[in-house]
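Students often ask why inverse folding is considered easier than folding. One informal answer: many sequences map to the same fold, so there is more than one right answer. In these notes we will look at a single instance of the problem. The structure comes first.
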């Protein structure tokens, strides 16, 4: 039940005091970018990211993620965008000039807490921040971890497939079963991935999945900024893909379980079925961002017909997020009036 979860609502305060106020098992997914270790000053007391040592930063985020685990529905997931910083002194946790390996340390700590690390996505930036450094390479990518609590979780791959490069047969059927086929070369180790589904498609004369291919774990997206915010905001497209894959379009109004889309032929009208026996209606799924900043997750959620809940420590950033959300709502209303 998620009756008392504030919807499309921003809680202004410290994530460590606000998150415990949210009901358990109430959000479908969490998409967030916490403060990185000593990379920005968010100009407010109690900010995360200014601890004395990188392992203390890891511990703070580990505790926040424990709180997120409590508010996630059992089939929920987390997308965590983090980047590394360079040490200036051994007291930060690594020799001066060394990467602190903060994202890696965090992932290991989260795995020890029971998180299942399903992906480590490289978000590469075609427009990285220029850097005057001359004795190493410029840092041009960041991590996006995809984490779940359970081996079975909500994931709508069809919603995020991308076009194939090779030509597609026009009569290709989309309802081909993607069962793990028993084709395993003799050299494959026990942890090697299965390509059985793809081999089956190829045998039926189809070069790839008729609905498009898996987007993979390397995303090239330009950075974004928002006038007024002196920190990097999420590029909306970095939020869109996680949201479409893991925040269900429809969930049961009573028990909160995701409805399922019926798989059919490519181009068929989408039909839905409830995965529970509640017999209740549906509502959109909810995405949480406990480090809301200027509110990009809320903006993308509303544009995609999902609900959101945010937490932000700095009241000025919270006001900025409200302004952005109000402006986007006005734009949409104007667009709808023009289209009517
Ligand atoms: C990387 S920014 C998030 C930007 C956001 N993704 C966007 O698109 O605008 C991190 C945010 O975390 C906030 N923050 C820092 N410490 C916090 C805390 N203890 N509780 C809640 N928010 C905090 C900062 O004020 C900042 O707005």
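Output (designed amino acids):
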């Amino acid at each position: 039940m998620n009756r008392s979860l504030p919807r499309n609502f921003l809680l202004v305060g410290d994530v460590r005091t606000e998150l415990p106020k949210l009901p358990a098992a109430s959000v479908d997914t969490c998409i967030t970018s916490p403060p990185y270790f000593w990379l920005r000053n968010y100009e407010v007391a109690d900010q995360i990211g200014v601890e004395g040592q990188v392992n203390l930063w890891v511990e703070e985020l580990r505790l926040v993620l424990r709180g997120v685990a409590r508010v996630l529905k059992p089939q929920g997931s987390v997308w965590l965008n983090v980047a590394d910083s360079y040490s200036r002194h051994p007291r930060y946790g690594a020799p001066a000039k060394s990467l602190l390996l903060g994202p890696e340390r965090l992932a290991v700590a989260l795995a020890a807490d029971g998180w299942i690390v399903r992906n480590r996505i490289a978000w590469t930036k075609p427009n990285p921040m220029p850097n005057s450094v001359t004795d190493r390479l410029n840092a041009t990518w960041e991590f996006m971890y995809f984490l779940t609590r359970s081996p079975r979780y909500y994931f709508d791959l069809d919603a995020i497939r991308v076009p194939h490069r090779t030509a597609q047969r026009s009569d290709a059927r989309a309802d081909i079963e993607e069962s793990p086929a028993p084709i395993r070369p003799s050299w494959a180790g026990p942890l090697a991935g299965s390509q059985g589904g793809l081999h089956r498609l190829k045998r039926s004369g189809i070069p790839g999945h008729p609905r498009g291919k898996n987007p993979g774990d390397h995303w090239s997206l330009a950075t974004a900024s928002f006038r007024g915010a002196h920190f990097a905001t999420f590029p909306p497209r970095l939020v869109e893909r996680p949201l479409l894959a893991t925040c269900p379009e429809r969930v049961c109004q009573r028990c909160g379980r995701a409805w399922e889309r019926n798989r059919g032929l490519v181009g068929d009208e989408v039909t839905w079925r409830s995965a529970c026996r509640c017999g209740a209606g549906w509502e959109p799924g909810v995405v949480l961002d406990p480090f809301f900043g200027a509110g990009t997750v809320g903006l993308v959620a509303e544009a995609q017909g999902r609900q959101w809940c945010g937490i932000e420590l700095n009241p000025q950033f919270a006001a900025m997020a409200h302004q952005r959300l109000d402006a986007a709502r006005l734009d949409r209303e104007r667009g709808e009036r023009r289209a009517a």
